[in-house]
Give the backbone structure.
Amino acid sequence: MDNVRSDDPMLNERACETCGKVARLFVYSLPGIPMSVGNCKTCTEKCAYPYYIAEGNTNYCLDGIDNAADWWKESVTYKDGRYQTMAEAFGDV
Ligand SMILES: [Zn+2]
């Protein structure tokens, strides 16, 4: 690992945008959302959306969970300390 610099800011641990855990993050874009997020390994594996994105897309872009496609209702966010589907998080249960 001689080519990895310990002062490289890309290698620093930061707070996960979805669950808040301090970890090395994976930066990528999520389906349906044209922006990048920084998620920890667990949130990346769950394909979890940061809550502010989940809320913005559900309540403002879609005007409520009832208007969401099934794939969005089944997608995961992190709210109140646990992973939840959009349907759970936004009341369509
Ligand atoms: Zn996370």
